[in-house]
Amino acid sequence: MEVVEAVGLGKRFGLDWGLRNVTLSLSEGLHVLMGPNGSGKTTFLKLVVGLLRPTTGYVKVFGLDPRKDFSLLSKKVSFMFEGLPLPWWMSGEEFAELVFSTRESSPMAAELASSLAVKAYWRKLPLAYSSGMKKRLQLTIALGCEAELYVLDEPFTLLDSASLSKVLSAVRELSLKGKTLLVATHFLPEGFMDMASSIIKFHNGMIVEFQRLEAT
Q: Gene3D superfamilies per the record (predicted)?
């Protein structure tokens, strides 16, 4: 069974199409989504995790509908989207505990909380966080959940070199464990593409290139 299968997938926002006629299938591995802002990468990922409803076509994840079967898929999928707000009324620690109370956490969660220095500030409310602090907390939670599919939107921005190295190590570890990762990014850190199984390039809401690679 393919991990992600899309057929004629499209999403319209008002009169504008954010995604048009996307058909592809993705199996286990690290899949890199590339393209300029507004090209459709994030829209595609939000359809995959069930945050948006398709206008045309369909997408299946592990053979399930991301919206109709959201409760079932929530145990299999972990995601992080750039700009997705944190609950301002909860400390980062409280939010992490809430997520991990409904999801199984992995040893990676504690490792990332320490190595990304999240523990130094996570008892504060998110209103006091910088953009980089928010990103590190979100990555700790997303990568620290036990899942079969990890969906990451611009995970490498706002990170210093040490944090970037830790996140890349986490991505590699998950990939080597046989997990599937969909990563939308403008920035390609050194060594990242060596792990990739495919590159999917978007433009004007459509896939313009799909290249399969041999991960090393």
A: P-loop containing nucleotide triphosphate hydrolases
The answer to whether the CB of 59 falls within 8 A of the CB of 10 is: no
**Residues forming a β-bridge with 202:** 207
Q: Please, what is the end-to-end C-alpha distance for the chain in angstroms?
A: 24
Between CA 93 and CA 155 the distance in angstroms is 20
Q: Cα separation of 203 and 209, whole Å?
A: 9
Q: How many CB atoms lie within 10 A of CB 28?
A: 15
pLDDT in tens, 139-190: 999 999 999 999 999 999 999 999 999 999 999 999 999 999 999 999 999 9
CB 153 within 8 A of CB 181: no
- Please state whether the predicted TM-score (pTM) of the whole model is above 0.90: yes
DSSP state of 116: T
For tokens 């409280």, what's the residue? 94
Q: How far apart are CA 188 and CA 140, in angstroms?
A: 20
State the Cα–Cα distance between residues 57 and 21, nearest whole angstrom: 8
Name the class of domain 4-86+149-212.
alpha beta
**CB-based burial of residue 92 (10 Å sphere; 0-12 exposed, 13-18 middle, 19+ buried)?**
buried
Cβ atoms of residues 74 and 81 within 8 Å:
no
- Per-residue pLDDT, averaged over 31-39, amounts to 96
Tokens for 214? Answer: 């041999």
- What angle, rounded to 10 degrees, do the helices at 107-115 and 92-102 form? 170
User: Residue type for 29, please?
Assistant: G
